[in-house]
Amino acid sequence: MTSTRLARSLSTVLLAGLLAAAGTAAAQNAPAPASSAPGQVQNLEAVTVSGIQPGPGLWRVSKGDHVMWVLGTLSPLPNRMQWKTDEVEQTIAQSQEVLGPPSIALKPKTNFFGKLFLLPSLVGARKNPDGQTLQQMVPAPDYARWLTLKKQYIGNDSGIENWRPIFAAVELYDKAIKRYGLTSSGGVKDTVRDLAKKHNVKFETVRYTMMVEEPRTALKTFKSSPMDDRSCFGRTLDTVERDMGRLTERANAWATGDIDMLRSLPMNDQREACIAAVTEAGFAKQLGFNDVKQKAEAMWLSAAEQAINTNAQTFAMLSMEELLSPKGLLSRLKAQGYQVEAPDGSDAEGVASPQP
User: Fold this and answer.
1) Whether pTM exceeds 0.85
2) Cβ count near 284 (within 10 Å)
3) Do the beta carbons of residue 20 and residue 118 sit within 8 Å?
4) What pLDDT shows up at residue 104?
5) Better-predicted residue by pLDDT, 352 or 27
6) Which of 10, 167, 307, 309 has the fewest CB atoms within 10 Å, i.e. is most exposed?
7) Beta strand extents in the chain (DSSP E only)
8) Backbone phi, psi, residue 209, to 5°
9) Alpha-carbon gap, residue 121 to 103, rounded angstroms
10) How sure is the predictor about 11, in pLDDT bands with cuts at 50, 70 and 90?
11) Is the distance from CB of 173 to CB of 243 less than 8 angstroms?
12) Alpha-carbon distance 353 to 326, whole Å?
């Protein structure tokens, strides 16, 4: 395994949930929804759009004659959508820089042979401490729901019963969105990067990299430490059990450029609970991972201000939540005196609905 792949594995192991971010002419019908407990909202039949779609318009952030056009990204997106990128490509071609979204990476501080010796430590990192099973880790009602949803979306996989709840939740969610004709990324970020390369425009990766001084110790700490990820597990079950129709609506709204619909739908789903499970865990604070998200956001704000001040035109990407939330990065730029204009011409960013 190369050092890059190992670094990615470490990131997945130690920051799962934090870094876990998102055709044919005929529409695709979703499967029948899973059973819900009495009083719960059932999944409605959902149809994902397909074929060529325009995607959302661009937000405009400006200061004087300098402008930054911002594309809102989203996960998941329709799998069979073909994104029409004419406007985006023209904007990138006329820009001096493309700014990627804030990201996080871990880098193990060890040599190549040290990385090889780490490989056995990665085996079983997803398993519960002390050999506990998933049934022992989560509330009984949630486990009963899990068995129903697991049968529908995953099948007879006995090995997953030994995983930590957060990893089991991620696996269930990934399988569910695939069944509904959705994909986690839609290739949007890769497409933007390719367009920047095509037009010889500098692509600036905004990545906060944290050096892991003792990667073997970090993995050992992670594998032996408890994590309160029951809320993440339960919220993910809620999403898969009753909110796949809403996720599909949201994905379709991105594809068709329906900003009003995007404003009306919650953006955070189960992610906040899963992020908290990681960042608030004792091992995260011990290893210094608890504030990396805030540091990455601060880096992006600094890079965005520099790009706007330096370039006549910049193209950037941010998650749709960061564009629509009153606490998002776009709102923070506005608070610092930048002019913000939404694709529909309004002079303020929209406000995403709170999570019910």
Assistant:
1) no
2) 22
3) no
4) 82
5) 352
6) 309
7) 28-29, 47-48, 51-53, 59-63, 66-73, 77-78, 81-83, 97-99, 103-108, 182-183, 202-204, 207-212, 313-319, 339-341
8) -105, 125
9) 25
10) very low
11) no
12) 10
